[in-house]
Amino acid sequence: MNQQSLTLHTPAKLNLFLEILGKRDDGYHELETLMVTVNRYDTIRFREDDSGRTHLSCYHANGMQDFALATTDNLVYCAAELLRKHVQYQHGVAIELVKRIPAEAGLAGGSSDAAATLVGLNKLWQLNLSQEELTMIANQLGSDIAFFLAANNAAICTGRGELIEPVQIPSQYHFVIVKPTGGLATKAVYQHYQLTTHKQSVKPLLDALQQSKPAQIAQHLYNALQQPAEELSEEVSTLKQIFSKEPCLGNLMSGSGTAYFGICPSSRVARSLAARFRHQGYEQVFITRSLAG
Ligand code: C5P
C-alpha cells in the first residue's frame, strides 16, 4: 500500500462573549457565545498504514512524548475511530499530535484537534463526506467542534455551542493569553454556574467588532462562566486582578477557563505585557492575534 500523509495546524479559540440562556432537558446549557480563532496551534500529522487501527502518539513542543495524553479518551482518537466506524474503513492511521494549546484552559485545543482529524482523514482516506456529515459526527464528540469545522475564524455559536453563524470581523486584535498552572474541567464549571434572570446580549460587542471600535469592544467583553470559575480557582481571580492593572483594552477568561486573556492595543504592548507575566513566574504565556475572518 502506498503510504500517504497529511499535516494540519489546528488553532485555539477565545470566547469574547459567552452568555448562558438556560438549562436544557439534556443536561447541557443553552448558549450564546462569540468565538474567534487565534494563531496558537497544535500540529497533527496523519499517516495511512495497514494496521487496521488508529495509533495515536502525543508530544509536547519540546519533543517530549506524553503517554498520558495518548489515550483512547483523547478527542483525536475518538474522532478517528468514530469516522472509521461511520464509513467502515478497513485501513489504519498513525497520528502524531504536537500539543501547544494547553488542556483544561477554555481554548478548545482538543476540539480543534478533533475537527482537524475529521477533515484530515476525510481527505487522506478519500471519503468525500459532506460538511453536514462531518458536523453530525463532530456533534457526537463535543459542543465546540462544529465551530472549527465551519472553517471561519469568527462566529456566534448558539444551541449547546454547535449551531454556527459565521461573522466577519474586519480588524485583527492582539491578545496575551495566560494559562495558570491549574486547569478546570468544563463540566465542573457549568455545574457551579447559577442561573440568573438578567441576560446580556452579544449585539453591542458584535457591533463594536464590526465597526472596529476597541474601547467599545473592551466594554462589552463578557463571560457568564467567569464567576463560577473564579469561585473554583483562585488562580483565575488572581489573573483578573493582575490584568485589570495592566494597560489592556479589556480582559476576560476564555470559555470555562482557566486561560485568561487581555486585548492589547498593539503587538508592542502585547510583548511587554507577556514579558511582565513571565517575570512573575507564569510559564504558559502566549502572544497571539486573531486570524483574519
Ligand atoms: O460538549 P462538551 O463535551 O465539550 O461538554 C463538556 C461538558 O460541559 C458537558 O458534559 C456539560 O456538562 C457541559 N456543557 C454544558 N453546556 C454546554 C456545553 C457543555 O453544560 N453548552
Task: Provide structural commentary.
The chain has helices spanning about 75-85, 110-125, 130-140, 145-150, 185-190, 205-210, 215-220, 225-230, 235-245, 265-280, and strands at about 5-25, 30-50, 55-60, 90-100, 155-160, 165, 175-180, 220-225, 250-255, 260-265, 285-290. The model has no long low-confidence stretch (mean pLDDT about 95). The longest helix has 16 residues, at about 110-125. With about 290 residues, it is an alpha+beta fold. The strands form two sheets. Strands 1, 2, 3, 4, 5, 6 and 8 form a seven-stranded mixed β-sheet that branches. A four-stranded antiparallel β-sheet has the order 9-10-7-11. The termini are far apart. Helices cover about 35% and strands about 30% of the residues. It contains ten helices and eleven strands. α1 (about 75-85) packs parallel to α2 (about 110-125), α1 packs across α3 and α8 (about 225-230) crosses α9 (about 235-245). Bound molecules: cytidine-5'-monophosphate (C5P). Cytidine-5'-monophosphate (C5P) binds next to β2 and α5.
Count of helix runs: 10
Bound molecules: cytidine-5'-monophosphate
Distance between the termini: 40 Å
Global geometry: globular
Number of strands: 11
The major pleated sheet works out as: 7 strands, mixed
Overall structural class, as computed from helix and strand content, comes to alpha+beta
Amount of beta strand = 25-35%
